[in-house]
Amino acid sequence: MATLIKQRRFAADSWRTLEHGSGGIPPAVPDAGDVIVPLALWRARRDELLSRQHRLGVRLERGDDVEALAGDLSHFAVIAIEFAKFADGRGFSSARLLRERYGYAGEVRAIGEFLPDQLPLLERCGFDAFVLRDGQDVDESLRAFDDFSDAYQASVTQPVPLFRRRSVRP
Question: What is the residue range of 103's domain?
């Protein structure tokens, strides 16, 4: 079972992530419980999903466009961004767009193939939740957040770069 880290702490995960159906058939959406659906399912069954009484999240996969969600962000409590490979940087950009361009304030969750040493940068880009894969060490992952005491560049979590913060001393 995967482990969820949320806001730098181990957390219980109440969300059920729906996968694509086999043979192109969309998966059945349960009537109860919080669900994260693939973007393709959201597009195909938007009205049905909005009529549910439980919280809704959406999953962006490699190649999915953040802009496609711009008008619907208020409907999602969680946006899960999937990393198909740890070397694919598109998820970092997607999180920054969600936070900085679209002002999304809900949970942005990293899922898939990312490494513990990427957690600080993921967080700086706007992720606040991380689903570790089976076998990933929770303690090692939590320690990774403290690998660096500061960063030079501006980010979602620190919009002023280090040189500007240091030049404005009282």
Answer: 3-167
